Amino acid sequence: MNETLIEFKNVKKVFDDTVVVEDFNLEVKKGEFVTLLGPSGCGKTTMLRILGGFELPTSGSIMMNGEDISMLPPNQRPVNTVFQKYALFPHLNVYDNIAFGLKLKKLSKKEQDEKVKKALELVDLEGFEKRAIHTLSGGQQQRIAIARAVVNEPDVLLLDESLSALDYKMRKEMQVELKNMHKKLGITFIFVTHDQEEALTMSDKIVVMADGEIQQIGTPEEIYNEPKNLFVADFIGESNIFKGTMLGYHKVRFCGTEFDCVDDYAKDMVIDAVIRPEDIVITDESKGQFTGEVISCDFKGTFYIVVVQAGKNEIEIHSLNNYAIGTKVGMSIEPDNIHLIPYDTSINHYEGKVVESKVEDKIHVEFEDFEVDIDPSVLIPGAVMEDWEVVDAEGNGIDLMGTRVEASFIPSDADLTDEAEQGLVQGNIFSFIYVDDHYRYTVRTKSEEDYVVNDEDLWNQEDYVGVIIPMDKITYKIIEGEADEE
Amino acid sequence: MKSNNLRKQLAIPYAIFLLLFVVFPLLVVIYYGFTNGDGQPSFENFINFFKNGKTVGTLIYSFAIAIITTIVCLLLAYPVALIIAKGAYSKKAKFLMIFVLPMWINFTLRITALKEVLTLIEGNLAYHQFLNTIICMVYDFLPFMMMPLYNSLTKLDDGLIEAARDLGAGKRQVFFKVILPLSVPGIVSGVTMVFLPSMTNYVVLDMIYNSTYIMGSLIGSYFSAYDWHNGSVISIVLLLIILAITYLSNKYTEDDGTSARVR
Amino acid sequence: MLKFFQHIFIWFVLLFLYAPILILMVYSFTDSTMIGTIKGFSMQNYITLFTTPELVEMIIGTFTLAIGVAVLSTILGTTGAIGAFYSKRRTRGVIEMANQIPVINADVVTGFSMCILMIVFFKVRKETFLPLIIGQTALCTPFVYLSVLPRLKQMDHQLYEAALDLGCNASMALRKVVIPQIVPGIISGFMTAITLSLDDYFITTYTKPATFDTISTYVVNATKGAQTDIKTALWALSTVIFVLVALYVVAQNVIAKKEEKKS
Questions:
Q1: What residue numbers bound the domain in which A273 lies?
Q2: C neighbours by CB contacts (3+ pairs under 8 Å)
Q3: Which of B9, B19, B22 to mutate to test the interface with C (most CBs of C within 10 A)?
Q4: Which end of chain B is more exposed for a tag (fewer CB within 10 A), N or C?
Q5: Of B196, B174, B176, residue with least CA distance to B244
Q6: How much is the ipTM here?
């Protein structure tokens, strides 16, 4: 059970100059149920296809049972796939579909019959041998596709969004059945889905992917309870995200309130606090750690979604009780239900270069997406421009040409605009999450740079927007050392 | 990957065939069009073509025949296609087959039949030469107009017609504001189906009059006289007309205009 | 009232399309040499049709040629379509453009350019039948390509991968999975090729050996000639072909209906 079966090493895949997957490292153990989870376009299906042999990795390797299989064609891999739309051969009946692989292996007719029968038993479709594919329902086709794959006794079964074509109830049933089949067969399952609930229900191990990179690998519990970053926190389940600061040992402040917590970070560090809606307890107004007013309460079958306004924050809470709108309530959170993620300080830094000045009294810096004229004193205290030349406080001329400069800004200083040309840079909304009382958007420009911006208005993914960054809010510094060769 | 290359390589024989027997012949024609009998480059053939009253007259005559034939075909085929697609016969889609079926009968045999009937009615075909020409051309090409029109009209969503009615359009307005504009691709591809062949198909006239005045027949006459250079000139002129028509039709339709030419 | 006019119009066009053929059919069973003159019942035309060696040879020759050309075109067009479908977009675009040339080109120009290439440029003798076969193949193959390609586009592209996944190598996957999916397209392409070849006049006339005739070229010559027994025997040929085509269409509809019921 603990033997490593598959190992992805630094796998990278590039399609027409676009990097689809990068730095993909993963170990899969024998008999594990691993789910690749992520939004569409995150590279999860590409990884599955690379494992199946339908795509070749641009670099990196895939080891199976200690052998490099990266370059093997699909028909020579001990791997079978259940395709997204099943890909059952319409010109063959159920029996011939399932026996397709067996015939290629030149098994005797008797063996074929036995194996097909067993496979049909496994998927609960005994007696369907002679049926034509188009007479089967979606759920039945799904089962036949599974039977056709497992009948070949692969080491690994790949399932590509295999349940997404089924309706809700059917999907729930198949989830349970797949899990049972996995137990019965004892082989490794690698499952690809964008449905986080499906992933949480079925997997031994979840690999959360976004933007071609692995975000987190862990058991469903780890992924849910201890998301490594805001993307995972936001993508898996519902969450309230608040910006806060560490006050000291196991003390944190957010929502204007001081909380005890179990995560430990240095004092004064900026953090994002993630709290699941079911982890906030509504109490009497007097008993809570902080208070607010109910602004909506919707019935969801087994619980109510209560939204409470606390100061400027809207807080979502799952509660078993109904609350009238306008009720003043108190709220409290257990320390171990507060999950802290260090604020990502690597965002919004851009590297540029000093080029020839365009105006007499400013130096000109070019960045990937924009260019600016700045006062030399911003980079070197006391420096001024004299006759197109930079001169330091002592009056010595300095040649800044080609110097690398870093520009930075903080998300709350920038704004988004529909009139894209008015922004300093333009791009499409790549992702967004709700934090405190605003959205935190990631805008991706054509040159693949990301700009993180806070804004109160709602945009949609893919919207083309401009990012307005006030000139005086951008900070600059000289990057020391030689440029790295890219 | 090897397994992916094999299926791509299947295109090689046909690609070579296309190059050798489709693209190359046109280059040879262009070569002959721009050389004289001694193999020297020359524009003489072209100058002769446009100077000669007979050839230019033939060009104009062919245009006239093609335009009138196309219009008559359109006026006959459009109502039929509309009636079968949306009108009294819309429940009997197979009915279209009856209109298309003559395409599969050799056209020389069909023209023979028509010639007999026209002779019976008119006594002597020589009296109404132009009329007879048009009748024969329409008879030959009508089925080719039918298919693309029908295809574009059946694709038209009934919901659009109902929406137009719902918004207050009368029957006439529904036709002119919804049905007609949406069937333009069908009209365009039907017109390309009919226009060019009726401009060049000289055999039809050959059969009823033993003599001809349309563009194709010029090629025929140069062919019989082994005059490859002048024959090539006519071919190039026709190719240019084809290019122009294709360019125009591509502008009006995304359909490749070929779905209909299933004889 | 509108419905009434729709019926009238439909039947008027049908009459125009079918009256000549039907009248000719009736007269093919008489001994009259012109339609309109009523004489007695006779099977003489059919006897002439099937006993005159010249006619029998011509008919057999036409069909042999058509089948040969159709087989060639189907192989070339199908492999070409599969190859192009799996090729890079640019390669496919180039092939598709070349493929369109014979489709939109006037048959006169296709025939003439083939003649110049094969006979004048390459100096291939017409008696080898090579110019004729290649010429007709160049005309027919694009239509096979066009009827196969949509089938490939419609096919679930994962079927090929599923076949590889289950142990096929590339050529097995093509034979066992891809080809069976596109069979309807291949068959209709084959039938189109046959009818195109049977109907062709222009390419045949420019590339055929002097002593060889197809139905088209034969009929055109016969209408110019004065041999009335041959002329009326061709009426019988029209009748036979019409009946065959009608039977084929009916059979196709019956099969289609049966398959509809099945699913």
A1: 239-342
A2: A, B
A3: B22
A4: N
A5: B196
A6: 0.91
